[in-house]
Amino acid sequence: MKILSRALFLLFVLFGVLIAVSNSQPVELALWPLPHIIAMPVYLLVIGLLLLGVLAGLGVGWWAARHHRRRAREAGSEAARLEREAARLRSTLAAQPPVAPATGPASPGQKAIERQSALVAPDLAAPATRGPFS
């Protein structure tokens, strides 16, 4: 990308030099509401207008991207807020004493969950039985 931008810059410089060499005739520029008349070479007028167009394009692009910049700022502040909240929750969790597992009889709901998980994910250490088509 850097090579491409440098090549384009050199191309524009070469284009400006060619304009300057081939258009050195003076031209008079009258600014209508003002009584002044400015005499300048044609190449200065052309290059000045090209620069004015580039600056106008940059300004329009900057103006069009303002919504994206605002959303990026908001997302960054939201991410920072969530990071602070996660750090706060980690510190409160680390400050709490560990909870000992219950050693009493398991509730009926817990037994049902264990039976269902045994059916869904059978023990992989058990030898597989061969079916009639294996």
SSE layout and pairings?
Blueprint: H1 2-22, E1 26-30, E2 37-41, H2 42-64, H3 66-95, H4 108-120
Antiparallel strand pairs: 1-2
Can you describe what's shown?
With about 130 residues, this protein is mainly alpha-helical. It has a domain at about 10-90. Helices cover about 65% and strands about 5% of the residues. It is built from four helices and two strands. A two-stranded antiparallel ribbon has the order 1-2. A hairpin with a 6-residue loop joins strand 1 and strand 2. The longest helix has 30 residues, at about 65-95. The chain is elongated, with a radius of gyration of 37 Å.
Attribute tags:
134 residues, two-stranded antiparallel sheet, 65% helix, 7% strand
* Helical content band: 55-70%
Q: Give the number of DSSP strands.
A: 2
The N- to C-terminal Cα distance equals 59 Å
Measured by DSSP, the beta-strand proportion falls in: 5-15%
Unreliable segments of 5+ consecutive residues: none
Mean pLDDT metric: 84
Q: Largest beta sheet, briefly?
A: 2 strands, antiparallel
- Rg calculated over all Cα atoms: 37 Å
Number of helices: 4
Structural category = mainly alpha
